[in-house]
Write a structure and sequence with these properties.
eight-stranded parallel beta barrel, binds SN-glycerol-3-phosphate
């Protein structure tokens, strides 16, 4: 299973890359706006910090506009994957971009049927947002399970990125579901390191060592 970092913050990406635990990065317009600055140069910097795919989202909502933006973003680095919203125009752009060898990540997936259509249109990745479903009282993990089960059954090549992850338990649950990738906010990644017994255990080892000395 791969772990991506869901951020546009360079320090967070640098730290996670130094830990050796991330395989790629996803961004979205909210995350990029939070950091400010020039979008293409930030993407180029992110691509230097990580080896894997870096998702960058288009802002146009019509097929033609999305394709034009996608081509500009894809020219930044071969690592760039174009994030396209789950709309009819979006899927038409995905199909056209696939013909040109540009990989897309269809975002804002909230139902199994949306996931199926995105895969049929040729998405390299799809991003079901489980946390936002949970917020509405729906079961986000169940959606990821359903998508994984059916994609596996039909040998679809589209990779499933479990997105909108809110806590470490989500990571376990989407791993058990068989998601290829989980994209995590930095705060969740930090929590994954922690266990009180690890801290207590280390403290005791060091204290015992001191006693011997
Ligand atoms: O980047 C897409 C997704 O992970 C956003 O998550 O926390 O804004 O629902 P969130």
């Amino acid at each position: 299973m791969k772990l991506f970092l869901d951020t546009a913050n360079l320090q967070e990406i640098q730290q996670a890359a130094a830990w050796g635990v991330i395989d790629g990065v996803t961004t979205n317009p909210t995350l990029v706006a939070k950091e400010g600055g020039d979008f293409p140069s930030r993407l180029a910097q992110i691509c230097e910090l990580v080896k894997g795919p870096v998702s960058a989202e288009v802002l146009a909502t019509d097929t033609k506009g999305m394709i034009a933006e996608a081509k500009e973003l894809a020219a930044i680095s071969p690592q760039i994957v174009i994030k396209i919203p789950m709309t009819a125009d979006g899927l038409q752009a995905v199909a056209a971009l696939k013909e040109e060898g540009i990989r897309c990540n269809v975002t804002l997936i909230f139902s199994f049927n949306q996931a199926l259509l995105a895969a049929k249109a040729g998405a390299a990745y799809i991003s079901p947002f489980l946390g936002r479903l949970d917020d509405l009282g729906h079961d986000g993990v169940q959606l990821v399970q359903d998508i994984c089960h059916v994609f596996q059954h039909y040998n679809f090549t589209t990779k499933i990125i479990a997105a909108s992850i809110r806590h470490p338990l989500h990571v376990l649950q989407v791993a058990q579901a068989g998601a290829h990738i989980a994209t995590l906010p930095f705060s969740v990644l930090e929590k994954m390191f922690k266990h009180p017994l690890t801290d207590q255990g280390l403290e005791r080892f060091l204290a015992d060592w001191q006693k011997m000395k």
